[in-house]
């Protein structure tokens, strides 16, 4: 039985890593496309350099996250005090966290894109007001992110304390279910925020249409399409993760 569980854990780990890598590759490709578009739009050198820096930062963050995940999994395996079920649960939570972080990064990118568009198109007066609004939005986003992270940490601490107290497996499963519910709520919040950002972009486009030539419009439409595709991919990934979780839960119940 233990062997089977271990094999399952390993398979799940592999799947998680593959999914994360795919997401990372997608994000990097998106960034590259953006940079190319910006180049086409004849932007200044400073902005392009800034974009490049953003890409590099993103890659570094993702790599660090992957390493941390691996370390966590290794530690869990070593400890082996924890049952395989707890390891599986932790893995699920980590998967959710990864998705949330990727969504956050994407939202930040969208904000940056909107700001760039503003800079490129509108006049100075309009840009200043819009930029202020965007800055406020970004600050709000940051606050939300911080709160979410703190909540996650607290949840993890609670779970670890429960494990140390060696309470019943059922209790632990209840706790994990709570964590998952909170995280799913957070995901919904993220989706809503992304939608809001999309609406903002639409408004910006409406403002800009008057001033722009056709080529610019086409560029914008391409960007929007790319964003929509990315969002669809995110939804797909979330669905897959949720399905995997359900399967895990079922298997656990059957094991019990």
UniProtKB/TrEMBL annotation:
<dbReference type="InterPro" id="IPR017452">
    <property type="entry name" value="GPCR_Rhodpsn_7TM"/>
</dbReference>
<keyword id="KW-0812">Transmembrane</keyword>
<dbReference type="InterPro" id="IPR001734">
    <property type="entry name" value="Na/solute_symporter"/>
</dbReference>
<dbReference type="GO" id="GO:0022857">
    <property type="term" value="F:transmembrane transporter activity"/>
</dbReference>
<dbReference type="GO" id="GO:0016020">
    <property type="term" value="C:membrane"/>
</dbReference>
<feature type="domain" description="G-protein coupled receptors family 1 profile">
    <location>
        <begin position="28"/>
        <end position="256"/>
    </location>
</feature>
<protein>
    <recommendedName>
        <fullName>G-protein coupled receptors family 1 profile domain-containing protein</fullName>
    </recommendedName>
</protein>
<keyword id="KW-1133">Transmembrane helix</keyword>
<keyword id="KW-0472">Membrane</keyword>
């Amino acid at each position: 039985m233990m062997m089977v569980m271990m094999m399952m854990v390993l398979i799940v780990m592999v799947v998680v890593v593959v999914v994360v890598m795919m997401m990372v590759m997608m994000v990097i490709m998106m960034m590259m496309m953006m940079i190319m578009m910006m180049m086409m739009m004849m932007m200044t050198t400073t902005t392009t350099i800034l974009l490049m820096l953003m890409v590099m930062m993103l890659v570094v963050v993702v790599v660090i996250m992957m390493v941390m995940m691996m370390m966590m999994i290794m530690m869990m395996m070593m400890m082996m005090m924890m049952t395989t079920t707890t390891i599986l649960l932790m893995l699920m939570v980590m998967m959710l966290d990864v998705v949330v972080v990727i969504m956050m990064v994407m939202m930040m990118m969208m904000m940056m894109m909107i700001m760039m568009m503003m800079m490129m198109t509108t006049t100075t007066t309009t840009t200043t007001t819009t930029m202020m609004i965007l800055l406020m939005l970004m600050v709000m986003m940051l606050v939300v992110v911080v709160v979410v992270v703190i909540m996650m940490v607290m949840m993890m601490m609670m779970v670890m304390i429960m494990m140390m107290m060696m309470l019943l497996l059922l209790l632990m499963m209840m706790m994990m279910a709570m964590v998952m519910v909170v995280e799913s709520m957070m995901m919904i919040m993220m989706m809503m925020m992304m939608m809001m950002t999309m609406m903002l972009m639409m408004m910006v486009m409406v403002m800009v249409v008057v001033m722009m030539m056709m080529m610019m419009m086409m560029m914008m439409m391409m960007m929007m399409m790319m964003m929509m595709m990315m969002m669809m991919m995110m939804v797909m990934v979330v669905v897959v993760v949720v399905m995997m979780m359900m399967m895990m839960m079922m298997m656990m119940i059957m094991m019990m």
